[in-house]
Structures are given as structure tokens and as C-alpha cells.
Specification:
239 residues, 2 domains, TIM Barrel, 8 strands, alpha/beta, binds zinc ion
């Protein structure tokens, strides 16, 4: 059954979340705690989407060798809570050209219900160091932009949207993750999200998403206050 089917059949009575990280990656609790809370809040569907294993040291993704335990645990819980809440098994796969790809292979070899395709680490043209645009700290975003793109916001943001386009054209996946990542840390500081050059980038990606019939995740991260004090004003969960 496809994810589109799950979403369509659930949409009239919908209380669902398909982007969940437990402590198998960078979430804060055991998967079962998310499930019991979802049941308490009347959710009918909950999808786990740990960050896929990356070929370099990091603190946020599944660690190499833990995939099997993750899959076994989610499938076990699926059986235990059968009839109470629908549990789905997924990964949030990172697209970094030349570093990690092959989403379709990941989905079939691990028997996943779906894949979220996301860009958290943006490549520049000069070296292999990646700009980390996620995480709660605005300083990480600002310092990376200064260091890898010479503080040229237009260059950095363009690289992000172009990397997304490349992912859409080269990979097979179900959901495109958090298109509000740039907005989350920008919050009108580096540029206005209504400037023509930015809207052109967003619109180009949205056209590609439509061509590939992808599901667009509405993520609320850009509405949540960060440690640096985002106001969360003028944000919608979309770019
Ligand atoms: Zn993500």
C-alpha cells in the first residue's frame, strides 16, 4: 500500500504525523513513548522516520549497525499497538550529491513503508565541507554561511534549493521534507522571503515537485522558538 493511500484514507479523520525521530537518531525518547502519547492524543497514524546512516561521524543520524534494531523495534511495536494506532516504518534520507544517495535501494532493502527525502547539509563548489542548515542554533547556520559561502546568502540559499532539485530529479522517494529550513533560521534577517530571486527558486522547486507527484511535508519547525529567540512571526511551515 502506498503512502498516498494511507494519507487519502485517513484524511477526513486525520490526526497523523509522518516525521518522527526517536532516540534511535536525534529524538529524545524511546519509540514506544511517542506511540503512547500519540494514542493519548487520538492520532490514527504515526510514522517513524529516523535520519538515515551517514558515511561520516555525526550526532544526529542512526549510527552504522543500528538499522536492524530500529526496524525490529518498530515492527514489534506495530504488532503490539495493532488496532490502536497505525504505525509506519520509514527513514528520512539525506541527499548529499556524491556522498549519499540511493533512496530506492534503501527502501526496498530495508522493507520501509516510505522515505522522506531531505537536505540538511548543503554542498558548496569549493570543498567537501558541508553547510549544516538544521539544528536549533542560529549561529551554526550563520557561521556556516560565512565560512563556506563567504557570507553570500543568495549563493548559499541557491545551493540549497538546487541541491533539492537534484534530489527530486535523481532519487525516488515519497515525501519531501521540511521546505521551511531556510526560513527557519532566516526569519527575515538575511533577506525577505518575498524577494523575487527567492520566490523564483521556490517556484522552480515546487514545479519539479508537482512533476514528480511528491507529497510535501508541512513542518512547523520554523514556527517554534529556537535558542536564539526566533519570533516565529510571518511563518507558515512552508518556504
Ligand atoms: Zn530533517
Amino acid at each position: 500500500m502506498s503512502l498516498t493511500y494511507y494519507i487519502k484514507t485517513n484524511q477526513m479523520k486525520n490526526k497523523t504525523n509522518y516525521h518522527t525521530h526517536s532516540n534511535f537518531s536525534d529524538g529524545s525518547a524511546e519509540p514506544e513513548e511517542y506511540i503512547t502519547e500519540a494514542i493519548r492524543q487520538g492520532f490514527n497514524s504515526l510514522g517513524f522516520s529516523e535520519h538515515s546512516v551517514l558515511p561520516f561521524e555525526n550526532t544526529f543520524a542512526l549510527q552504522p549497525g543500528t538499522e536492524t534494531a530500529y526496524i525490529a523495534e518498530i515492527r514489534r511495536l506495530q504488532q503490539i499497538y495493532l488496532g490502536q494506532v497505525q504505525i509506519l516504518l520509514a527513514l528520512e534520507a539525506d541527499y548529499i550529491p556524491g556522498v549519499c544517495a540511493g533512496f530506492a535501494g534503501l527502501k526496498s532493502s530495508l522493507g520501509l513503508d516510505y522515505i522522506i527525502g531531505s537536505v540538511h547539509l548543503v554542498k558548496n563548489n569549493h570543498n567537501d565541507i558541508l553547510w549544516f542548515i538544521d539544528g536549533p542554533r542560529r549561529e551554526t547556520y550563520d557561521n556556516g554561511l560565512n565560512e563556506f559561502f563567504g557570507g553570500d546568502i543568495r549563493k548559499g540559499v541557491t545551493a540549497y534549493w538546487h541541491q533539492l532539485n537534484q534530489m527530486i530529479e535523481n532519487e525516488t522517494f515519497d515525501i519531501i521534507g521540511h521546505l521551511d529550513k531556510i526560513k527557519m533560521h532566516n526569519q527575515g534577517r538575511w533577506f525577505s522571503e518575498e524577494e523575487g530571486w527567492y520566490l523564483d527558486l521556490v517556484n522552480e522547486t515546487i514545479a519539479l515537485i508537482a512533476d514528480h507527484s511528491l507529497i510535501v511535508e508541512v513542518n512547523t519547525s520554523s514556527r517554534v522558538n529556537t535558542s536564539s529567540g526566533n519570533s516565529g512571526k510571518r511563518t507558515s511551515g512552508l518556504p
